[in-house]
Amino acid sequence: MYPELFSFHLFGSDVVITSYSFFYALAVLFVIVGSYISVTKNSFLHKKALCMLFFVTLAGFVGARLLHMVFNPSLYANGQLHVFSLHMSGFTIVGGLISAIVAGIIVGRVCHVNVWRFGDLVVPYLGFGVAIARMGCFLNGCCFGHVTSLPWGIKFPLLSYAHQYQITHGIGNIFAVARVHPTQIYEMIAVILGSIIAIIINRKKFFPGAAILFFGMWFSAFRLMNMFFRQMPDSLILSQNKYIAVYLGIFVVCLIIFIYQLRRQKIKNIVH
Fold first, then answer.
1. In this structure, is the dihedral angle defined by the CA atoms of residues 231, 236, 241 and 246, taken in order, positive or negative?
2. E strand or H helix that includes residue 60
3. How many C-beta atoms lie closer than 10 Å to residue 125's C-beta?
4. Short-list 25, 18, 57, CA closest to 142
5. 54, 217, 219, 209: which is closest to 118 by C-alpha?
6. What is the rounded distance in angstroms from the CA atom of residue 226 to the CA atom of residue 130?
7. Could you give the C-alpha distances from 145 to 153, 155, 158, 159, 225, in angstroms and in order?
8. Residues contacting residue 21 through CB under 8 Å, at least 6 positions apart
9. Which of 96, 93, 89 is nearest to 222 (CA)?
10. In this predicted model, which residue has the larger pLDDT, 99 or 196?
């Protein structure tokens, strides 16, 4: 669609701002600022909030890069992507979420922060952040779906990522682009709905961890469904069954913890 948003001349060089990098950077900024405002409004000390957000964000970037390397080793072997590149590309959201959660648990224990409460307050902003990032994917033309005849199918421009994939795999021809599922839009809608529900859960004051665990189940279930519509890249070494196992595993773990926390809260209510 619009892989390049704008460009300008700076210090004798042309600077190009891509839609992918711009919206991913905007998403990160939105999540950090929104989360900081949210947690500090809810009795979290400013220093502890900054400490948590710093390490969680750093771990998120590292985890997202590492998992992308594991899933797409050929991209790094041939030099298309670099491990320590500062360019906003080459990340896997699931890897970032998992590493951010692990870092949050560790840092939360060190800083004596209620990790469940912290996660509940942060997760709506995280969901909206994912939606912003997916807008960058949509404008960039990556993460596209399978060919479809449905009326809401998207026809990307000639020589876009979708078109190049179709030519390489004998779908259509060089002068026409087949319509594909707008999987980026599907995910935007899903995470926005998930974030709204998470906000409602927080307002209803369910047990600690209810919002973040719900979102974990919601997001993994959607990702599991959406992969049947999304065209997976050739560089991905995981088979579809292994991808299903990853998301199913996340869903089951979140469900088990959700049930445990729910029962624990019921016991507390009975005791009191």
1. negative
2. helix 46-71
3. 23
4. 18
5. 209
6. 15
7. 9, 11, 16, 16, 12
8. 87, 88, 89, 136
9. 93
10. 196
Structural domain boundaries in the chain: 4-146+181-266, 147-180
CA angle 186, 217, 194 (to 5 degrees): 45
DSSP state of 139: H
Candidates 108, 110, 136, 130; CA nearest to 216 is 130
Residue in this structure with the two tokens 């990160």, named with its chain if needed: 28
Spatial contact of 208 and 142, defined as CB atoms under 8 Å apart: no
User: pLDDT by residue (tens digit) across 147-164?
Assistant: 999 999 999 999 898 999
Q: What is the pTM of this model?
A: 0.87
At residue 117, φ and ψ (nearest 5 deg) are -65, -40
Q: Beta partners for 6?
A: 17
Torsion of CA 148, 68, 244, 132, to 10 degrees: -60
For 81-116, how does the pLDDT look when each residue is reduced to its tens digit (9 = 90+)? 666 665 656 677 777 888 888 888 899 888 888 899
- Give the residue from 126, 140, 147, 168 showing the smallest Cα distance to 29: 126
Q: What is the CA radius of gyration of the chain?
A: 20
Dihedral sign computed on CA atoms, order 1, 91, 54, 134: positive
Do 64 and 92 contact (CB within 8 A), yes or no? Answer: yes
Tokens of 135: 């807008």
**Which backbone phi and psi does 173 adopt, to 5 degrees?**
-145, 180
